[in-house]
Amino acid sequence: MATKSSVTLTGYYRYTDIWFDWSSQVPNPEDGVVLKAMLAHDALCHPEHPLHIDGVEGAQLYIGIFEETGEARLLFSSKQVDYIRYWLQAMGMTHSPIPLPYSDCLLTKGELRSVTTANYKDGGALRRAIKDIERNNKRLKGLNPTLEAKRQNFERVRSLWAAKKGAWLAIDFEAWEMDHTVVTEFGWDMVCWKNGEKIENRGHIIVQEARGYTNSKYVPDYRYKYLEGLGKSETVKRVELKARIANLIDDAAKYGPVYLVFHDNNQDLKYLKQLGVELSVTHLIPDTAPEEGRIIVDTSDLIGALLGEDTGNRRGLEKTCRLLQQDTLWLHNAGNDAHYTLSVMVAMASGDQVDKQRDQRWPNQTGPSLTVRVHPRQEEGSDYESDDDEDEDVGPRLGYDVKTGVLWRTDDPQIAVPVG
């Protein structure tokens, strides 16, 4: 990897390019040794490392998802790389700023579908993350388009939720089991964002004319079991329900784009149409938050992406809640179901990147037993050196003691190479 002294672009560098190649290509070998020590796993995670961020335990790096392949890479930002070279000179550890990597090594935002921060509390966590990312990239080989689309939407929902804009409105209907044109309940749970502040609104409506139509044969009838902590049920005439729903969605639009959150949206959209609620919606989830619009977000697709399922089968809401370790009570009440639908969406959207989140939720597995359909494949041409299960070193493990100014090797703590 060649170097040069200036850069005109900003973006991200692959962690592997910086760790394995940058130090070996600088003109002064002594500067290369110092640079390698500063980039060592344990040194990066030290609280006194120059890249340390107050309030973050360990090191903060980035995970980027490539636009074309969907593969993930651990990244340094160009700002971090630039800061290291000037900090080393300011501390007298190099005589001049170390040349930057060539701009050809730089990844611009246009090449990346998404970029998120990732924190690693110690060197061991960082080394394991490198292996985990590579394992997950191998799983991506040969994915069918359906699963790839789910994975893309999962990352887009994470990005949109993190933006804290618009309204996220989960809605649910219940109907008479013998005739689905008889709507018995409507429920909603909503989070709106105004200047970064969260505003919540939820409720449950029982349709007056349908009170005599009870369920018991195929599904339980819990219309009077709306959770006390969420509010009180209202009884409304069917003729008023259309206006109530339309006004709810219009009020949500005052905050910007409305993300209509369903768990398996097909039937609920039919209910809306049946009631005469006219909606112009899109199932295409954007990369960035639009100024307006009504966008469908389906939590059954999100859990499918998280589980790595590539079939048309969808997990029910109860099973989804169990998988995400969320306790439920009185499901099949429209208000409760809307609440749990929004809750599981937030749980997934506020978590880490899809592969990292899967490993966190179900460690040492490809996913929950008998659910995950993504399996590792051995592929050549890896960016990383090892995919063994053991916690082996990734490159030489040099460290830098910021207090004493001493370089050290983790494989032999007795060997200390003074700087300067």
Automatic annotation (TrEMBL):
Residues 168-348 form the Gfd2/YDR514C-like C-terminal domain. One of its GO terms (cellular component) is nucleus. This is Gfd2/YDR514C-like C-terminal domain-containing protein. InterPro entries: Gfd2/YDR514C-like, Gfd2/YDR514C-like_C, RNaseH-like_sf, RNaseH_sf. The lineage of its organism: Eukaryota, Fungi, Dikarya, Basidiomycota, Agaricomycotina. Residues 355-399 are annotated as: Disordered. One of its GO terms (molecular function) is nucleic acid binding. Residues 381-393 have a biased composition (Acidic residues). SUPFAM superfamilies: Ribonuclease H-like. It comes from Ephemerocybe angulata. Transmembrane segments: none annotated.
